[in-house]
Amino acid sequence: MKTTILSLMVLSLMAFSVPVMASGDVEHPPHQHWHFNGMTGQFDKAAMQRGLKVYREVCSACHSMKRVAYRNLVDLGYTEDQVKNIAAEYTVTDGPNDEGEMFDRPARPSDHFVSPYPNENAAKAVNNGALPPDLSLIVKARHDGPNYVFGILTGYEEPPHGHELLPGQNWNKYMPGHVIAMAPPLSDGVVAYDDGSPQTVEQYAHDVVNFLVWAADPYLEARKRLGISVLIFLLVFTGIMYSVKKKIWSDVH
Ligand code: HEC
What we know:
Blueprint: H1 2-22, H2 45-57, H3 80-88, E1 91-94, E2 103-106, H4 120-125, H5 138-141, H6 145-154, E3 170-171, E4 179-180, H7 201-216, H8 220-248
Helix pairs in contact: 2-7, 6-7
The site of heme C has 21 residues, from helix 6.
């Protein structure tokens, strides 16, 4: 009997350790300090504005963000006029007009972010067959999203001895399987900041993750605020109920 239980325990331990072994060759990205984490977490608007700049000047060459509309950018602290100007820098195809033809016009705040490619096949054709995923929900679509995306952007290195890469492949410490089709998109100084923040790969990665977290979860702040109000309400309510109970039972001995 004892041996059966023992072997069952060993078996279940082995079963649990399989996934750990399978993912053992991928390093887990280190945890960064994020302003939006924790019970009272808030968005860092300055970081999000810089992150939008990184997205617009670098990532948007390959990655769409179809779920975000220009008008949503007021959340980042821009005025309606600033949002109009940002949108107007892009061109969308609209139509058909009265003659039945499609036409180009500047984007409006109500338009969604313009995609770099007309369709997925076009996107793959210019990226060695790999599809750059839409980034609107990427931090939700990956385990430990913010740290993971930060890790990918800062985790490029030379492949270890004995690993040959094909053309168009790159080695990344944090990519499952290590081989990634995206060439390192960031390098120090590629995006100019006008608020004095460091123009380094780490800072760009930090800022673009702040922007992507907002894009994937724009109500994060409101939800946390509501959570805190509920907790305060419950505390006060408990206090009131306690004094009511004391009063009601005060005559009973
Ligand atoms: C030159 C094109 C290009 C640029 C610029 C680019 N990417 Fe990519 N990205 C790709 C491609 C292609 C893939 C798919 C890689 C693969 O599947 O191996 C990818 C994949 C990714 C992934 C997903 C990795 C995964 O887990 O599947 C993330 C996250 C990402 N990119 C973020 C970014 C961010 C943020 C920027 C801007 C700082 C950026 N990329 C700039 C082409 C690009």
